[in-house]
Amino acid sequence: MGGMIMGKRRKREIEVEEIEMVENGMMTGTLKSGEEEWRIVGIYVNENLERKIEGLKKWMEESKEEGRRVVIGGDFNARTGEMGGRVNMGEEEKIIKSRNSKDKKINREGRRLVE
């Protein structure tokens, strides 16, 4: 048995615009703080990684067009070893390609995820 939950602290400076369960294992919420809007994406991948990645790409493109920032978190059931890193989208985009991990194993889903 499992599930997903998304919540927020009760502070007036953050408004929840919407929270939506898009499909099994994928949910999104839109938060507003001042003039900034954030799309928060929660994901659990137990099958069909490709379909979930396509959904993420769509949300990221929509959010970019709308001027929203995006935070993605969840469980991708992917082993990436030391591949990947993060993207910092501040004043200038920085891609940091180093990642430290005790788990050095990489599986097919992990390779696809960091492409």
Specify Rg, calculated over alpha carbons.
Answer: 15 Å
- What is the tally of helical segments? 2
Provide the residue-averaged pLDDT. Answer: 77
Strand fraction band? 35-45%
Instruction: Report the helical percentage.
Output: 10-25%
Order of helices and strands: EEEHEEEH
Structural class, by secondary structure, is: alpha+beta
Overall geometric form? globular
Biggest sheet statistics: 4 strands, mixed
Number of domains: 1
Low-pLDDT parts are: none
**Count of DSSP E strands?**
6
Assembly state: single chain
Characterization of this structure:
The chain is of the alpha+beta class and 115 residues long. The chain has one domain. 22% of the residues lie in helices and 36% in strands. The chain contains two helices and six strands. It has a four-stranded mixed β-sheet with strand order 1-2-3-4, covered by helices on one side.
